[in-house]
Write a sequence for this structure.
């Protein structure tokens, strides 16, 4: 692959800085360089900074040059929470919600997570992989270069393994980076509704060991909330994951607050949703490396008036990330720019804070901060070019795509909207 030179960049957001995730005031520090350039070779960033200085280094290479024409370049978005594998939309849920039904009411009527199970169980692995690849390509067209992808709609060992195999198959065909997560502990399947402990044993005693042995996932997730798994049950999931060398993360506080300290001892990479928080958990979170991943797309699609209290977390120096929560029931969006817009308008994050949360802090939520999320020498050459003159336009122009090109591991491609 020929070395790549992105030149004539109006605003380059490097996000360069310290080793850990951004907190407090540091979340707004973008490391911006004007009249900039970036040199990439062998999938890595070789140099990034003022155009004159980078151009001198580029003379040592035979480069493929891309003129950014004064536009904005930032690290590729890291979408650190997605439910990539499902067979189709949940349109009945959508209509019921419009008519006034709530999340738990829909689930009790046979909708919700369990309604997606039959589609995944009946679909072939190749069908699921093909659909996943299409979604990954759509994400890339909007500036996303790294994606966390969960299973969780199979709810049986066979279907969960199939889902993770489909993720791996799609990832091999996509130039970006995919991090796989087993979410067997999403909810208890309807056929085991009366025997939840038996299903929990299937997750901890069979799914997790098998996934670890086959190296199908880097993380194990659990939905710890009312109607899903209790705190005690979630600890069992985390313990099994730790015994088999897998990282952990958790859905927590979406519907009700949970005491996070019992789970914190397992050093989860992230706690996700975090709509409902206990005051005593915040100081402990601020001292930890666990990232609070906020998912405003779900609040928007569910028609909720309240959003995660980002300002409370940021003021307390908790590390905050943003992700799409792409899924068929509560957040069917692939657009990180839209999520940034929601973060600004509904959670009162500044554009700079939102971009940091969607790049460097998203990388730390996947334990990839040493490789992803900033434009620094030696890191992976994952970048997004936006056809705007000011970085604040990225969240400003909501429901429209201004991403012109992405580089994934140093391979540049124009997005579909601009190929025309």
């Amino acid at each position: 692959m020929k070395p790549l030179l992105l030149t004539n960049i109006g605003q380059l957001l490097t996000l360069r800085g310290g080793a850990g995730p951004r907190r407090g005031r540091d979340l707004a520090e973008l490391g911006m360089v004007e009249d900039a350039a970036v040199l990439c070779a062998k999938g890595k960033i070789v140099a990034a900074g003022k155009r004159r200085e980078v151009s001198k280094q580029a003379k040592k290479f035979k480069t493929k040059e891309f003129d950014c024409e004064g536009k904005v370049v930032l690290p590729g978005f890291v979408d650190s929470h997605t439910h990539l594998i499902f067979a189709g939309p949940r349109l009945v849920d959508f209509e019921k919600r419009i008519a006034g039904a709530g999340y738990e009411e829909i689930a009790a009527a046979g909708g919700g997570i369990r309604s997606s199970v039959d589609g995944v169980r009946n679909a072939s692995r190749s069908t699921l992989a093909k659909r996943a690849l299409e979604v990954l390509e759509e994400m890339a067209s909007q500036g996303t270069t790294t994606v966390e992808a969960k299973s969780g709609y199979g709810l049986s060992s066979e279907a969960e393994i199939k889902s993770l195999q489909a993720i791996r198959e799609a990832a091999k065909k996509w130039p970006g980076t995919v991090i796989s997560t087993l979410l067997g502990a999403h909810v208890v399947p309807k056929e085991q509704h009366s025997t939840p402990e038996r299903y929990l044993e299937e997750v901890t005693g069979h799914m997790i060991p098998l996934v670890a042995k086959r190296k199908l996932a880097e993380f194990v997730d659990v939905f710890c909330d009312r109607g899903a798994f209790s705190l005690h049950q979630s600890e069992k999931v985390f313990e099994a994951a730790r015994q088999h060398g897998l990282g952990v993360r958790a859905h927590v506080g979406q519907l009700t607050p949970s005491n996070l300290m019992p789970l914190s001892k397992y050093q989860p990479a992230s706690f996700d949703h975090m709509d409902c928080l206990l005051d005593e958990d915040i100081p402990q979170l601020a001292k930890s490396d666990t990232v609070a991943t906020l998912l405003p797309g779900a609040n928007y699609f569910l028609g909720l008036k309240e959003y995660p209290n980002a300002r409370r977390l940021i003021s307390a120096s908790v590390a905050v990330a943003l992700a799409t929560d792409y899924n068929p029931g509560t957040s069917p969006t692939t657009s990180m720019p839209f999520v940034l817009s929601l973060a600004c308008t509904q959670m009162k994050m500044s554009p700079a804070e939102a971009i940091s949360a969607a790049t460097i802090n998203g990388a730390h939520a996947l334990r990839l901060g040493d490789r992803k999320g900033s434009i620094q020498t030696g890191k992976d050459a994952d970048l997004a070019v936006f056809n705007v003159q000011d970085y604040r336009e990225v969240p400003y122009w909501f429901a429209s795509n201004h991403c012109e090109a992405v580089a994934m591991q140093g391979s540049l491609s124009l997005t579909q909207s601009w190929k025309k």
Summary: Residues 75 and 351 are 15 Å apart (CA to CA).
